[in-house]
Amino acid sequence: MKKIVNLFVVAFFIFLFLSGKGSIYAQGRGGLRGVVTDSTNSEALAYANIYVKEISAGASTDVRGYFLIPSIPAGKTYTVVASYIGYNSKEFRVEIVENRITHLDIELSQTGVELQTIEKVGEKIMETNATDIGLQRIAIRELEALPKGVETDLFRSLQYMPGVRTTSDVSARYYVRGSASNQNLVLLEGATVYNPFHAMGLFSAIDPEIINNVEFYKGGFSAEYGGRISSVLSVLPKEGNKNNFGGSVSMSMLTSKALIEGPIPNGSFVISARKSYSTAILDKFFNNRNAPIDFYDVFFKANYADLDTTGSKFTVFGFLTNDNIKYDDPLKSDYKWNNNLFGLKWFYVGDSPLYIQLGVSMSNFKGEVIPNRSKAKPQLNKIGDVTVNADFNYIFDTKDEVLVGLEIKEVNTEMHVENSRGAVSDIGANGTNLSFFAKYKFLRYENFGVDIGARLLLTRLSAGGGNNNPFEPRVSLTYRILPQIALKAAYGVYQQDLTTLTDESEVISLFEPWIIVPEYLDPSRATHYSVGVELNPLENVSLEIEGYYKEIDNLLAINQNKIYSTDPDLVAGTGESYGLEIMAKFDPSIFRFSAAYTLAWAYKEVEGWLYYPRYDSRHTLNLSFEVNLGAGWQASLLWNYSSGLPFTQLVGYYDKLYFDDPNDPSNLVDPARPYALLGDLNLGRLPDYHRLDFTVSKKFPLFFMDCDFSFSMLNIYDRANIFYFDRKTGERVNSLPFLPTATLRIVL
Asked: CA–CA separation, 94 vs 168, rounded Å?
């Protein structure tokens, strides 16, 4: 198998070399390529539309703002129209030269007229053959329009999509199509973020201020992504203002933050920092209990363009986060965790229809439990990786594309744990994942598209139990039977060598260490099946319906039946999930309405026990309404409903005694304390959850500044949604009550 792959790689690069030396297009034809940016700051405009009038053909820009229209008849001058919703369209007259790619860089300006319509910046115009089932694109302005918890948050916005849910108001951890949160891949500028949460998981650690665009794959993702078996969240940050120095400051009831950006020679930079300053608002999320949380995050990015090489660009970036939970009571444990991420990328566009991207990144996470004088034991977890990747994308004159890539990921993990008797375990592991992927996008027909490819794991992080299959096939397709109706489907196999140790009986888990799958177990392996239909019966009405089925083998779980030291810490089980997702949108410009509904089932089976995971919810419904009131005013409503989540019921107590010496029963360490006796795992169901949120915002100038004030009311009718039952007292603990919040943002 390795020999075949090596031959394929060599053959592909020989092909690229020859294609660069020979004719790019058939005789009498040329191409048009360029990048589309915002005229005020030169930020790339992803999903802008480029249209050539005379031949009724065009293309959309990718996430970097680049576009390519191949195989245009040469020797003529054409009218090229660039458009982007929320921006003024532009027309250009461009001459196409035979056997050459003509470069056209385009700057679009935002519409300056204040209209009483909903802003739809960044919304991609429909591509009739796009193989994008399970893909959701998120624009930052859509995030800002949603009702805010305390402030705008990326992960909170995901839970309003069909197929995605969280387990409480207290956690932004998201679960996609019946899979665990540690099976989601989070990428920032293409680098892995291992713990992308602040404040015990309450908020995303990725500040929305730094985001340019987001792509979220709920399943069926293509061959360029690997290492996780559930979903992919890819965040592309801003590049910084290439024209002028500027910045913004903002303050919410939880954090204050600042952003600075500006030009550098042949490039730009952006730096963002956010810091918590008060945790009083967090107490509301924890049922008015003290939440002594302190956190910060810092992001920076700089770009440099090589003027001697058209389209060549270097990028360096970094991301730092730090969280501390420190109680005044020395009898309580403290918690610390942080992320450190750095990377360098090189993007190259030559004189042929070839895109090259090379990158190297380093990502580290450290989590720690500090017991102080409590009865807890010290715990420490570290995970770090160094990743090198190379991607090559070639676009044919038929519009077909081929993408191949190679990724080398070196991973090291450490875990230090101590049990109740003081026995210390230092567990460390390291491994190298060498993976190769290739895919072909068949896009030559306007109403039919296929994305077929595979990922091959040449080496693994884990040696596994001897039953490893290194091959991961992927395929997705779209067939548009009518201009208003498209049928879609996807299939894929995915594997995961990393996991976290998660106690499913815990309501909130602050320490979930990352480990490489032990050698006595095989890595988790999931198979995705999905089908869907996309309907656009009217210009302002869209309906998407998707059904999915997912099966997981080698699903890892903590061995709850471990008695002896020789017993394994982890055991393998299976998982299954399936469901139906419906997303309806009505957008007549005066207002915007959307409804997202999910009908879902999820199961796990471990050592003969079949049970519901804690994130299984049969019905979920999200209704949102947004209206632009004019004069800078905007308002939105969001109603969220979900059926009850599983929980493990409390069936009784017994007195637990602690002795220094088990042979001397008179030597008690502590008097008898009640110990909770739990029933079968997740056999009970909590009551249904629902709440209504409202936000109103106003944009206004103030001297030389642009201001944006937002006021939100969460849980307007003060629904008493249950969070959990306290196992010590048996009392009910509720989630977030009625809560007003406000934020102010100032752009300099």
From this structure: 55
Letter for the amino acid at 161?
Answer: M
Report the distance separating Cα 246 and Cα 705, nearest Å.
Answer: 11
DSSP string, 19-50: HHHS-SSSTTEEEEEEEEEETTT--B-TT-EE
Could you state, in chain order, the average pLDDT of each consecutive group of 10 residues for the chain (748 residues)? 47 47 64 90 89 88 89 91 88 91 90 47 56 83 66 87 89 91 96 89 88 93 95 95 93 90 95 86 64 89 80 92 86 89 92 90 94 76 96 90 96 81 72 95 92 93 67 95 94 95 76 89 95 92 96 89 79 96 90 94 93 95 92 91 91 67 58 72 92 92 89 93 80 86 89
Amino acid letter, 272: S
Name beta bridge partners: 177.
none
**For 10, left (φ over 0), alpha (ψ -120 to 50), or beta?**
alpha
Tell me the DSSP string of 709-740.
EEEEEESTT----EEEE-TTT--EEE---SEE
> Using a CB cutoff of 8 Å and minimum separation of 24, what contacts does 733-737 make?
733/287, 734/287, 735/168, 735/169, 735/170, 735/285, 735/287, 735/689, 736/169, 736/170, 736/284, 736/285, 736/691, 737/284
642 to each of 49, 166, 618, 621, 645, how far by Cα in Å? 38, 10, 8, 6, 8
φ/ψ region of 646 (left if φ > 0, alpha if ψ in -120 to 50, else beta) reads beta
Helix, coil or strand: residue 531: strand
Q: Is 61 helix (H, G, I), strand (E, B) or coil?
A: coil
Distance from C-alpha of 213 to C-alpha of 196, rounded to nearest angstrom: 17
Assess contact for 469 and 494: CB atoms under 8 A: no
The single-letter DSSP state of residue 177 is: T
Tokens of 320: 């730092």
Q: Please choose, from the candidates 399, 42, 401, 423, the residue with its C-alpha nearest in 3D space to the C-alpha of residue 224.
A: 401
What residues form DSSP beta bridges with 746? Answer: 249, 707
| Domain architecture of the chain: domains with CATH | 2-108 (2.60.40.1120), 135-233 (2.170.130.10), 234-648+683-747 (2.40.170.20)
φ and ψ at 686, to 5 degrees?
A: -75, 160
- What count of other Cβ atoms lies within 10 Å of the Cβ of residue 708? 18
Q: 546 to each of 265, 399, 485, how far by Cα in Å?
A: 48, 27, 14
Pairing of the two strands 650-659 and 633-642: unpaired
pLDDT for 11 equals 46
The string of DSSP codes covering 642-670 is EPPPEEPPEEEEEEEEEES-TT-TT-EEE
* Beta-strand pair 424-445/401-418: antiparallel
DSSP 382-397: EEEEEEEEEEEEEE-T
Specify whether the CB–CB gap between 313 and 304 falls below 8 A: yes
- Please provide residue 12's backbone torsions phi and psi, each rounded to the nearest 5 degrees: -65, -45
What distance in Å separates the CA atoms of residue 70 and residue 666, rounded to the nearest whole number?
A: 86
First vs last C-alpha separation in the chain: 58
- Residue 424 CB neighbour total at 10 angstroms: 10
User: Residue 531: how many CB atoms within 10 A of its CB?
Assistant: 16
| Residues 411, 221: Cα–Cα separation, whole Å | 23
Helix (H) or strand (E) holding 3: helix 2-21
- Report the distance separating Cα 446 and Cα 58, nearest Å: 11
Structure tokens at 21: 């030396």
CA distances from 425 to 468, 516, 656 (A): 28, 16, 26
Q: How far apart are CA 221 and CA 132, in angstroms?
A: 9
